[in-house]
Amino acid sequence: MESRGAGFFAVANDDPTVRWRARNALLVLTGVCLAATGLTIINAIWGSSEVATTMLGVTVASGLSVALIKANRIGLGLGIFFIVPQIGQALSMAARHDARLGAIMILAPIALAGSMLPPRGIIGVAIFSVTIGVVSTLKFPPTTPITTTEIFLCMFGLLVAILLSALLGIAGLQREMRRAERSSRALTELNSELEQRVAERTEELQDALTQQRNLIAELAENAVRDPLTGLHNRRFSDHELPIMIATGERYKHPVAVALADVDNFKQINDGYSYEVGDEVLRQFANILTEVTRGSDRVTRHGGEEFLIVMPESTVEEAAMASERIRQAVQAHPWHQVAPDLSVTVSIGVADTYHSPGLHNVVDAADRAVHQAKRTGRNRVITVTTDPGSQERPNILMGCDELQTAQQREEHPISPM
Q1: β-strand pairing of 345-351 with 380-383
Q2: What is the mean pLDDT of residues 36-54?
Q3: How far lies 395's CA from each of 85, 354, 392, in Å?
């Protein structure tokens, strides 16, 4: 149960109609109990003992009804309020053998029932009261004529009961309407506040989710990005290169790989400084980015080695692209980095046609760059081993000649 209202006349019930009727009953019953108590005392001292006994019964009945209604036994409390006094009145008329104005007086409970009982209860009280009034009047008719004063007082009492019932009904309805309006406004404000909180919370969660996604993307990018040069690192190439090689081999498209190594890089670090060495790597990375195509993948393979993957390129096309890289590095104004500084690069080139398979093509490019180092540096060496041939040394060619292995059989290794 939900307690509504405050004070003595508050009734605990979830149904607003029941609360309204019970509150009206408490108002009337409390007044009746107080009035009956006062009349009991007065008649016990100065009046009739019979009236005092009757008033005492009314006091007990109304007090019991109040206690039951406050205990949420509303039906039982209202039943006592409407039935017990009616029975008491009937017994009183039977004891006196005089039902003076009984048919009129029983109309008062019917009038009050409208503000306290549901429709079925009103019908029950009306039938019960009319039955008692009619039967008592017929069985115990007045022994003396009824005076105008008595009729007036009874009609006045009936009118008071009707007015009281109407006022209680109107007051109860207005009270419940005001409560409903307050509840509606409170619910509207609460709903608006909840909607605002939900919107704010949703926006916060969306912002947090966006930040989390950005952070994850940033962390994922940083994990595959070299912090010095800004290029992708070997972890990225280890992931992307197998996919590119497998795709090229599946669709019979050539994929070339170039491995570029800065010449004498240790001497640059030792002779100038590690800061100069870092700047050389940064500028070399910029040259690679500018000279290569947008479809090529340039990664820092490790230390001063850089890997360039060239999809849709034969070894000859990759060799020419590598030569452009070599020339761009040689012509770069390195003296702006450090006085008398010059930088060259050795590049080894292989492709998946002559060296099929991921490990084969990378190993071939690695062997080619080592051959370039051994034969004087600052050159491009290409690998052109015929697929399907027996195990024999790879044929390495300089890109400035681009001659076939058949034309240079007497020189299987030719530096640029």
Answers
A1: parallel
A2: 80
A3: 125, 10, 9
Tokens of 366: 């690695």
**How many C-beta atoms lie closer than 10 Å to residue 270's C-beta?**
11
For the beta carbon of residue 401, count every other beta carbon within 10 angstroms. 13
Residue 161 has what pLDDT?
66
Q: Which two tokens stand for residue 191?
A: 């709903």
Q: What is the pLDDT of residue 154?
A: 65
Tokens describing residue 397: 């060619």
What pLDDT is stored for residue 169 in this prediction?
67
Quick one: which of 383, 378, 372, 234 has its CA closest to 307? 234
How many other CB atoms sit within 10 Å of the CB of residue 310?
25
3 state DSSP class of 351: strand
CA-to-CA distance for 4 and 14, rounded, in angstroms? 8
Residue 304 is among the residues annotated as catalytic for this protein:
yes
The β-bridge relationship of strands 297-302 and 305-311 is antiparallel
In whole angstroms, give the CA distance from residue 347 to residue 140: 133
Inter-residue contact 324 to 313 (CB < 8 Å): no
The stretches of 226-294 forming alpha helices (DSSP H) are 234-250, 265-271, 274-291
Residue 276: the pLDDT is 93
Catalytic residue (choose from 189, 193, 304, 323): 304
CB 128, CB 79: distance < 8 Å: no
Rounded-to-integer distance, Cα 346 and Cα 367, Å = 12
Say how far apart CA 17 and CA 270 lie, in whole Å.
96
Q: What is the DSSP letter of 399?
A: T
Q: Are 299 and 233 in contact (CB under 8 A)?
A: yes
> What's the whole-model pTM score?
0.49
Q: Which amino acid is at 304?
A: E
